[in-house]
Every structure is written in structure tokens, then in C-alpha cells.
Amino acid sequence: MKRAILAALGLATSLAVPAAAEGIKVGLLLPFSGVYASLGNEIETGFNLGLEQFGAETGVTFEVVREDTEVKPPVALGKAKKLILQDQVDVMVGIVSSGVLGAVRDMVHGASVPLIVANAGNDEATGASCSPFITRMSFSNGQINRPMGTWMAEKGIKKVFTLAPDYAAGRQMIDAFTETFTAAGGEIVGQEFTPFQKTQDFGPYLAQAKASGADAVYVFYAGGEAISFVKQYDSFGLKAELPLYGSGFLTSPLYVNAQGEAAEGVITALHYAPTIDSEANGVFVAAFTEETGRAPSEFAVQGYDAARALIEATKTGANDRASLANALRQVSFDGPRGKLAIDPATNNIIQPVYVYETVAGEGGLTQKILAQLPAEADPVNGCEMAPVSN
Length: 390
Ligand code: PHB
Hints:
There is one protein chain. Helices cover 36% and strands 22% of the residues. The protein has helices at residues 37-54, 73-86, 98-111, 141-154, 168-183, 203-211, 223-235, 256-259, 279-292, 298-315, 321-328; strands at 2-5, 24-30, 62-68, 91-94, 115-117, 134-136, 159-165, 187-194, 216-219, 244-247, 267-270, 332-335, 338-342, 349-350, 353-361, 364-373. A hairpin with a 2-residue loop joins strand 12 and strand 13. The two termini are 31 Å apart. P-hydroxybenzoic acid binds at residues 36, 96-98, 119-122, 169, 222, 249. This is Amino acid/amide ABC transporter substrate-binding protein, HAAT family.
């Protein structure tokens, strides 16, 4: 399905912007089915809102072609190929799963097509497998989880049991947490990886956590798996005895109300919460709430900022694959999550990380920010960034 979004018709001549390109064709590659379908839909909503809100700053017309990855790496690879070769898109936006990002990386790099990553945190895509064509406007798996290891150890937590789905994101998030938690004197007393997209009953793993002697449990789950995990954790009676921590996707505003009371008191870290008190976030929350009737999640802001980054790139006159790739790497702005910039050494985003607790609020569950941790660039992790010639 194609959807044309016309931005700022007629404004181009009155603004001091370089000559507008005829139009930019965007391939939106997201899961619209499978365990991360709601994440894909949320990123798309944020992306369209960003185009509407910032489109007036450029004279460019955007045409969007959307494709469903189904959260399946081989399907996603076929869809990426179609967008690149058949639709001849100028830029791709999206990708939710680290596994899918790993699968399409070589095709994107080999075809020299810029990709704005709007979710997938795969550390390698901005590490050893980095590419001047891959720019991340979301987060990296290490970036979100490293600060939480140190923070929890500082809070006096000594023994932790970890759980995550068995695929790249789960492994990388838990590794990053483990590294800083143990460096700060903590001990991992047990670790399990659950079959991704296949685990319905977390009971056996929860029994292991209970018997492990841990003071707390630290997990990564997202989407449908996060909803069932948090509910089962509570109904298993573990919450009172073993506090639950994790990366903030666990209790995303996108599905926290489906978790209900089970999510109350869970403490997590993330690069965004709709309760961030800033002018840019206020504008975003108001616009998103007006459109959807609910607060935006981290997935929404990633789509919104991906659109803004694309618009910033076109404002420099970039209008083809190579010039867009170069311009995207230089984007920086003050957005809903705070000041963000792209690290030229890796093309990963640099942004603050927030620790938040899910608490009962007036209109349902909400996010109480406990700490804002400083923005840090990821380690280069073997990235050797090659230049792009325009
Ligand atoms: C990932 O696979 O990188 C991933 C998926 C869902 C999230 C976060 C990371 O919420």
C-alpha cells in the first residue's frame, strides 16, 4: 500500500531552504503482524505525526511505501529487497527486532541505501557491523541496560536473576546489564533465555528465579511477551518478595494498561517516558494524545524523531541515497526525550537515559521518573566507519 504525505505545499519558495527535491520515497519496514505488531503500528503513528509536524520546514514531498516484516528475518530480507530494487526507495525507516536488523544489514550496506533505525537496538549495527548508511534514532541495547547495572548496585541490590527472550536483543541487553552490575560488585545468581515468540508459560522460569536466592529479578521483554510476563510475575506472587526491574520496554506506556496493577512498582530504565517535563515533550505529548487519545510511548517518539531527522536531512538539500546518508549522520536536535545527537564514530544516537517506576496515576498507570542518567556515547565496539562519496 502506498500513502502519499504532502508536506508544506507552496512554502518552499518563501523559506530560505536549498532547492527542494522532487520528492523522497520512503520505505517503512516494520512489523505489522507478530509479537511486535503493536510496536510497528506505534512507530508508524509517530512517524506520520513527525512528517505532519515538521514537514512545513522543508519543501519536499514524501511518499511512503510500507512493508510488514512479520518479525521474521527472512521475510524482512525479502521485503527490504523489494523496497530497494523494485520500489527504488531513497531511504528506509523502521526495523523493530535486532534479529531483523542483523538480517538486512548487508543488503542495506551493499545497496548504499540509508536506513534510519527506528527501534532495533542491535549493538553490532553500530559496532563491528556499522555502516555509514545505518543511522540509529532509537537506542542501542547496551546503552539502555548498562546504566541500570550500576544504578541497581548503588541501590544496594546484591544478587540478581535475569530473564530475556533468546535472540540478539535479549542476549545483548542482559550482557550489558551483567557487565556493569558485576563490575559494581553485584552477583548474577541465575540466568535464563526463553524461546522467542514461543513462550506462553513463564512459570518454570519464575520457579527458578524464586529458588535462586536473588534479591531482585532483571529482565527484557517487549510487546505481547511483556504483557504476559508482567501479569504472570504478579499472579505467581513474586512481586512482593522479589522486586522486578528491567529495561523500560517491559512496562511501556503502549501496553502498561493491559498489564494493569501487575505493573505497579516495577522499576525500569529507558530513553523516553511521556512524563519527561520539557517544552518539546509537552508539544509532542499534546499532539499525539489529540490524535490517539492516549500518551505516546518510546516507540512513538522513535518514529516521530526519525521523521524529524529525515526532514532535517532534506533541509540541507540532501535528495538522494548518498547525500541523505551523509546528512542523517549529522543530525542533532532537542526533542521530546532531551538533547540528542548522532555519534559520528558509530552512527548511534547519544541521549539521556531515565530510570522510572510505574505507578498508579489519575488516568491509569503512569511513569514516575526516579533519575535522569547522563547521555553517554556507546563504546565503538569495533566500528570502522567508512566515508560515503556523494
Ligand atoms: C530489539 O529486538 O532490538 C527490540 C525489540 C523490542 C524492543 C526493544 C528492542 O522493545
